[in-house]
Automatic annotation (TrEMBL), chains A, B, C, D:
Residues 165-280 form the 3-hydroxyisobutyrate dehydrogenase-like NAD-binding domain. It holds the Pfam family NAD_binding_2. It comes from Frankia casuarinae (strain DSM 45818 / CECT 9043 / HFP020203 / CcI3). Keywords: NAD, Oxidoreductase. GO terms for biological process: organic acid catabolic process. InterPro entries: 3-OH-isobutyrate_DH-rel_CS (IPR002204), 6-PGluconate_DH-like_C_sf (IPR008927), 6PGD_dom2 (IPR013328), 6PGDH_NADP-bd (IPR006115), HIBADH-like_NADP-bd (IPR029154), HIBADH-related (IPR015815), HIBADH-related_NP60_sf (IPR051265), NAD(P)-bd_dom_sf (IPR036291). Belongs to the HIBADH-related family. Signal peptide: none annotated. This is 6-phosphogluconate dehydrogenase, NAD-binding. The keyword Oxidoreductase applies. PANTHER family: CYTOKINE-LIKE NUCLEAR FACTOR N-PAC, OXIDOREDUCTASE GLYR1-RELATED. Residues 2-157 form the 6-phosphogluconate dehydrogenase NADP-binding domain. The active site is at K168.
Length: 290, 290, 290, 290
């Protein structure tokens, strides 16, 4: 199958490569040229955004709402795309953007599918992502073979384009809450003269299994926040997406306000390039431990 | 072995029964007589608190700090107990009480061991509790055979008596935070026109496994808070224990303030006899969904 | 003096009328025509935005960032304005917009002054506003005669264009915090079987004087939120401006998260058209009093 | 008139001296002897607590609930007091203690009146306190001549003994909220490159008059927290009293959780002996400004 792929960051590059390895012809675009060159060595065809759309099916994995708006909701791009072309947006964007994107695609006779993913670059490389999608069943069925290459499982969670984004945004919210809860508890443990790693070990042995608690728990318990998989500013961005998703639906999110402040505190202390698990240091600073 | 057991609530009764079934002679006391009568039918020996202490080893599972202070730190009880007798407190009490209890036992030539447990009545019945203890290794070794009857695993987490309580209190804090996080996220999901049960299913399939997220998640996703395993006022009591444990060690706990308010809100709305997972209704009320 | 005036809401109309009464010729524009017609009856000259700018000095009082961006940062407007023309923005806008507006005006050879005001429509009518400005002293001196018509006092608070906005935004933040604090305290008073009005009377007699506590206190104590001077959604908008001003400068604002949720809760309960003092009802609902 | 006075801290000493100066015979007791000696030089009669009660009317100004319970609810003291003797508790204590104290006094045939005060030592010295009382009108009338010596105004706010305490506790809550609000806003102002003192000057000129905003505002704006009138641990104690007063009446207090954490953070950073206005430094630390 011939497909376009827009956005070759860590996640996008890994995903596009899996599609190539599965035998697809991938027309790839990225803002900076290096990732395109690298992917071309693996068999990708460097392309413009319009050339990518010309294949009739484009997967995108751009950084944020702004990038999607600038690159893919540009009227010139949408006007040039062939009738009925399908854009599958796999990035974490706001529900407001999902609603707008679906509408603008429809106005140009195009189709839009939201399909954000859970999983980090290692899961992307392993074709092991969890894909969440929502919308028209026929469209989803059409893309399913590609999803099967990229992920371990696809969930269809609703019929509106923003439903998948809502699940993704609030899933990340649960992760952020889990990190903050472990960070706060670990600060008390440390102030009480104990080793947080022991605390985390007890809790993740049986009560809190699964990669979020065990993975981030290990980082928090050991105060070793490497490797950096998801930087603090991206974490703050996702907390803001959650707060906005609540605001638009009149839902207060008291944990969200706390998260926002904890991440802002981290940025105020120069932790910009650290993994979001390092928000633990905010809890330690507040307690005079750092 | 001949042992005393003080406090036959749902947890205590199940634990004492397992000790009887394992061949131990259990001298049992409870504030109200019915649980004693029931346990006597299974082979327990009704006893006074002092008779229980006279065995040389007493396990206790009382409701809260006040009950422990009133019943087991009574100078008459401590004075009457045989020299070197061991009191194993398996209830969730404050770290301040653990420190005080250890000191007062020592002043009377008695030994005190904190050994709170994770797990609800079904785990207690199945001898499947997770036991957390701290303190003198020889004492722990001495009680280990009893712990092996009661639980699936025993963790020794420190050398001070309050260390085990700290792990227990903050473990419950993590559970309460997880409930609140799922409740908030589910309110946005519901306000967004989706089914929270689907959201929970996606998140617990792979990212958040383990009994806390799957068990409470099912209750929250389905808004079905039965059976009542842990009532809301007990949840609030444990949040207060966490806040106090932070206060005494100068550790701010911003999620704790949010939890406190969510539980108080639930009590203000008559949810006194509901499971603490029903704090979900607070999140729904705030959003005008209830 | 001949001046332009853009934006004739409740505040803008009252301010423009005072300028007319002081003998100035006011070229007025508004999105909807009725306020222009009304003001024309008082002597204003209906005008386009470009005609207003052609006078060389324009005061604007538009609703929010979006309106300012759409109407006054339109490149066509800025290009058409005469060299050196001065735009005095008296509305409550974000500091980000102030920075951007100053830059874009400068790029077109125009001058931009931020001069937001404290005071409601009654103060505007009475020429009794408190005006906060920042920036070039010569420019401020030039506009001072107009400020003297509109307000009781002008404060120059800094040299950057956004400084005045920062003072205005955080001043409103103090007001919102004061309302929430009185609302929370009054809920305890009411739940304790007392009259909140008495509580407010005691507190504002001596400790908390000034219009914020006495004015909003009377509304809160009596649960009488009329007249509606500042609607809840505008209050939420200003809380969001404060949060954004903190976010951009890496300053956590924990009270801000609480305010956000209290206002969202009010909107979720249909209080859209009520004065922001009515956020008191959120505190009462949480306590099961409403 | 012959009266007893219990508790000669800064406030108590100033109040007792005013009573002496007004011609009353004051039998004074204090835990440590020095303040008694000092006051005796001004005319007081050193006395035991029971001798103080023997006068038939005792005013007390002890540090906290614990001191009141230990000294004045001691059954020996209450049993020895003459029938109908009146105890006027002017300290800031919990509403739970007020209820308990009234009951225990009644059980011993004694009368109890709550009459906490607003105002610091300078106001106490000047006889300028604001006195808040509640309960039996005849009893209040009986003490009014003494109140007139001590304060500028007496407010009767309800008929239950705890009503006066509720007003006092929540009044202090408003003060703490005002300090935190000014602290947070000032941190944004400082991070924005401005002088917080200017911000405070603008806000207290007209919107926020009264001693709380002007007095604490000056300390916050100048970051000069001297003189120490009310130490941070006392502030935290009062925040805890407010939280408890809400908890007992099922009223969530979201600002209270934030205050608690801000004060705990300050104590974690060694600010134990500073005035509670210095909680401003917590806001500055969070923003990386300290």
């Amino acid at each position: 199958m011939k497909i376009g792929f827009i956005g070759l960051g860590g996640m996008g590059s890994a995903m596009a490569r899996n599609l190539i390895d599965a035998g697809h012809t991938v027309l790839a675009w990225n803002r900076s040229p290096d990732p395109v060159t690298e992917l071309a060595a693996a068999g990708a065809v460097p392309a413009s955004i319009s050339e990518a759309f010309a294949t009739g099916i484009v997967l995108s994995m751009l950084a944020d709402d702004q990038a999607v708006t600038d690159r893919l909701l540009d009227p010139r791009v949408l006007t040039a795309a062939p009738a009925g072309a399908l854009h599958v947006n796999m990035a974490t964007v706001s529900t407001a953007l999902a609603i707008q994107a679906r509408r603008e695609h429809a106005e140009h006779g195009l189709r839009y599918l939201a399909a954000p993913v859970f999983g980090r670059t290692d899961a992307a490389r392993a074709g092991n992502l969890t894909i969440v999608t929502s919308g028209d069943p026929d469209t989803i069925a059409e893309v399913q073979p590609l999803f099967d290459v990229l992920g371990r499982r696809t969930w269809t969670v609703g019929d509106a384009p923003e439903h998948a984004n809502l699940v993704k945004i609030l899933g990340n919210y649960l992760i952020a809450c889990s990190i903050e809860a472990m960070a706060e508890a670990s600060a008390v443990i440390e102030a009480g003269g104990m080793n947080p790693a022991t605390f985390i070990e007890v809790l993740t042995d049986n009560l809190f299994t699964g990669p979020v608690f065990t993975g981030y728990g290990r980082m928090i318990g050991n105060r070793d926040y490497e490797p950096v998989n998801f930087r603090l500013p991206l974490g703050l961005k996702d907390v803001q997406l959650a707060l906005a998703s609540g605001l638009e639906r009149n839902v207060p999110l008291p944990f969200g306000g706390v998260l926002r402040d904890a991440f802002v505190d981290a940025l105020a202390h120069g932790q910009t390039d650290q993994d979001w698990a390092a928000v633990t240091e905010t809890a330690r600073r507040r307690a005079g431990l750092a």
